[in-house]
């Protein structure tokens, strides 16, 4: 290690330490220990352009050990990204571009949101999958427009979390040779030595997964360099480089201790550390000129790399103009012209159809028009209806089509799909049973936090899945998903609503969860639908203009069946439901009408979309003057109060399900037409008088 290398590495360390000290919170130890290997990666291997963080063929870098965020922020600032020194000084403060853990979309150069350990590692697997898929689809002999690597720095916590085991197994199976993980093996966690809880033979474990493995001294620059060179030469295996490092490197009193992990060094220890590293005691955030000049070379290198790629792209366009146009469309996250007509042209069945089956029809129709649509299931493809028929699959070492066999790996599947979507160029989806959405919750939360346009398909959505029993029957999962800010949850009532839900999911800029039935549900007539065009910005009853507003589901809720199409006054009663329970309400409406009770049925497939509508539209659907409202949904009723109000009622689940045929379960748990009618009558009998002028 020459003096310039040492100065540059210590610059990374001390920027990180000073920022944590300034914030009075943070994790200084990891950046101090991993600085040397990160320096090698960023200055000798990583192909990126600080002036254009979105350059499509850049290498991807993910800091899975997101608590060490100052390592990444220091590198981004030093190499010339639009991240001023003032932002490092404002580390962890309100409104800064340097939050406590990296967040995609908030800081230039941050690829993914990391912090929950293992998620970034699994995101990196998805990014490597995206690179391989796009390279297979777009590259031609002599024209490699997709040609980059995915690097990830992971820590001991990442290695312990179960998601990394699933993701590593999947990556090894698929032989993702352009995925390289540097494992910051500092052997310290919050409670102390990793020996308290971990005795894995990590290299053996990853070798068993099919990874190429190496072990190096993480502070020996030449060892790290050779290891990365060896890893880059492995094109049929992902690579793990176990780099032995020392948390808090250079701190006389904190190196190799748990106290270096998650708290500032403190003024006294900071002074001792600077002295030990030969660093000037003042000022803080000092950047030696020689280090600044060396790191600044990244901008010139990046500009040259991107220019060379632009020339390759231009040559590609001359030989393959149609493919180049499609490439640009995919990179811009644009869908082919007229794609909604693919869904709108599908004829809906007149006989009952499970919404999972309707979703399968939608996927297969869309795949014919949207070539960058891909996805799969957690070994439940035939049940989730997510297989794209007559097309190949992502297989070990190759891509033969858009189907992905994720295996029984929900944790890794969801995070990998996030990585695929964040990579750019592809529109991914994945699927499992709704009861297993809990396995995916951390990734769903990060998708919502990062506004990742991923699509999550959940089938077998209620007790009506039947005999498999309460272990597989979701009851609390719908409210749990609705509790995630930024996640659009759609539970369609029939085939037509399912097609509309897919249209909305593909239009969305953030994540969407589609909640689908196992059992068949009837096709719902819309001949009594009232759309309230006068209360909206877009008329909902014209479906030929291609606007998402033309789709009733786009409003989140709509009057599926009016009490009287000609009536101006609000009905006596409003029945509100989602999914399979909407059909119960339609039948109940008929029985109530025969008893002289005017009743409106509102289909509410998406709470999130409905609450985003104008007050006028919400009032049109749920007029305040009608306080007799009954919500019906085969789930825990948490949250429905916002729509039923103080004088309404909710027919929902009060506990877990049971193992029995679906019709028996519905009878036992009260999801029948008779039960809806009885509950509606009871509600009306106990209604408090309401001022007609209210």
Structure description:
This protein is an alpha/beta fold. It folds into 3 domains: 3-302, Thiamin diphosphate (ThDP)-binding fold, Pyr/PP domains (Rossmann fold, 3-Layer(aba) Sandwich); 340-521, Thiamin diphosphate (ThDP)-binding fold, Pyr/PP domains (Rossmann fold); 533-685, Rossmann fold, CATH 3.40.50.920. The protein is 41% helix and 13% strand. It contains 25 helices and 22 strands. The strands form 5 sheets. The chain has an 8-stranded mixed beta sheet with strand order 11-10-12-9-13-14-16-15, with helices on both faces. A 5-stranded parallel beta sheet has the order 1-2-3-7-6, with helices on both faces. Strand 6, helix 9 and strand 7 (239-244) form a beta-alpha-beta unit. Helix 1 crosses helix 2 (29-45).
């Amino acid at each position: 290690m020459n003096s310039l290398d040492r100065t540059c590495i210590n610059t990374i360390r001390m920027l990180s330490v000073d920022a944590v000290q300034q914030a009075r919170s943070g994790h200084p130890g990891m950046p101090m220990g991993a600085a040397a290997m990160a320096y090698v990666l960023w200055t000798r291997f990583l192909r990126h352009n600080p002036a254009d963080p979105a350059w499509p063929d850049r290498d991807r870098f993910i800091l899975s050990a997101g608590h060490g965020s100052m390592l990444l922020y220091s590198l981004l600032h030093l190499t010339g990204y639009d991240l001023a020194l003032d932002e490092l000084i404002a580390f962890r403060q309100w409104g800064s571009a340097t939050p406590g853990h990296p967040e995609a979309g908030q800081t230039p150069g941050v690829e993914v949101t990391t912090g929950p350990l293992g998620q970034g590692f699994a995101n990196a697997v998805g990014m490597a999958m995206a690179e391989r898929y796009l390279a297979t689809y777009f590259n031609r002999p002599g024209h490699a427009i997709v040609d980059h690597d995915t690097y990830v720095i992971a820590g001991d916590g990442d290695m312990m979390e179960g998601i990394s085991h699933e993701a590593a197994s999947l990556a090894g199976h698929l032989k993702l040779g352009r995925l390289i993980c540097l494992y910051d093996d500092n052997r310290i966690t919050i409670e102390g030595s990793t020996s308290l809880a971990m005795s894995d033979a990590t290299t053996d474990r990853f070798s068993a997964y099919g990874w190429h493995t190496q072990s190096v001294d993480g502070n020996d620059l030449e060892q790290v360099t050779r290891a990365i060179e060896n890893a880059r030469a492995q094109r049929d295996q992902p690579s793990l480089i176990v780099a032995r490092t020392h948390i808090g490197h250079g701190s006389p009193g904190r190196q190799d201790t748990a106290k270096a992990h998650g708290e500032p060094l403190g003024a006294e220890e900071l002074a001792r550390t600077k002295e030990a590293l030969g660093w000037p005691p003042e000022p803080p955030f000092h950047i030696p000129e020689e280090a600044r000049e060396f790191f600044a070379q990244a901008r010139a290198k990046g500009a040259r790399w991107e220019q060379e790629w632009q020339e390759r792209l231009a040559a590609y366009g001359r030989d393959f103009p149609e493919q180049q146009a499609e490439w640009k469309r995919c990179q811009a996250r644009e869908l082919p012209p007229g794609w909604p007509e693919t869904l709108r042209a599908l004829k809906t069945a007149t006989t009952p159809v499970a919404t999972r089956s309707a979703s399968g029809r939608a996927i297969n129709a869309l795949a014919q028009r949207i070539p960058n649509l891909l996805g799969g299931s957690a070994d439940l493809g035939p049940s989730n209806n997510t297989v794209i028929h007559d097309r190949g699959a992502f297989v070990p070492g190759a891509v033969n089509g858009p189907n992905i066999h994720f295996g029984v790996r929900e944790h890794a599947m969801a995070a990998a799909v996030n990585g695929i979507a964040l990579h750019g160029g592809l529109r991914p989806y994945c699927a499992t049973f709704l009861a297993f959405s809990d396995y995916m919750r951390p990734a769903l939360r990060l998708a919502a936090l990062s506004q990742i346009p991923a699509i999550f398909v959940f089938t077998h959505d209620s007790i009506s899945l039947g005999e498999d029993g309460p272990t597989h029957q979701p009851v609390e999962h719908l409210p749990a998903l609705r509790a995630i800010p930024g996640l659009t949850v759609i539970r369609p009532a029939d085939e037509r609503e399912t097609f509309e839900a897919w249209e909305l999911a593909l239009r969305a800029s953030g994540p969407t969860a589609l909640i689908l039935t196992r059992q068949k549900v009837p096709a719902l007539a819309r001949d009594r639908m009232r759309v309230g065009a006068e209360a909206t910005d877009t008329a909902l009853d014209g479906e030929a203009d291609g606007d998402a507003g033309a789709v009733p589901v786009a409003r989140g809720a709509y009057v599926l069946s009016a009490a009287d199409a000609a009536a101006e006054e609000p009905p006596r009663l409003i029945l509100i439901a989602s999914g399979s329970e909407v059909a119960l309400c339609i039948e109940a409406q008929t029985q109530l009408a025969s008893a002289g009770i005017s009743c409106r049925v509102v289909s509410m497939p998406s709470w999130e979309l409905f609450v985003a509508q104008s007050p006028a539209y919400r009032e049109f659907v749920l007029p305040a003057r009608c306080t007799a409202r009954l919500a019906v949904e085969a789930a825990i009723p948490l949250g429905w109060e916002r729509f039923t109000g103080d004088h309404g009622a909710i027919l929902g689940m009060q506990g877990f399900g049971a193992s029995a045929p679906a019709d028996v379960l519905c009878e036992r748990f009260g999801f029948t037409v008779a039960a809806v009618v009885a509950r509606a009558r009871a509600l009306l009998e106990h209604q408090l008088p309401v001022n007609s002028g209210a």
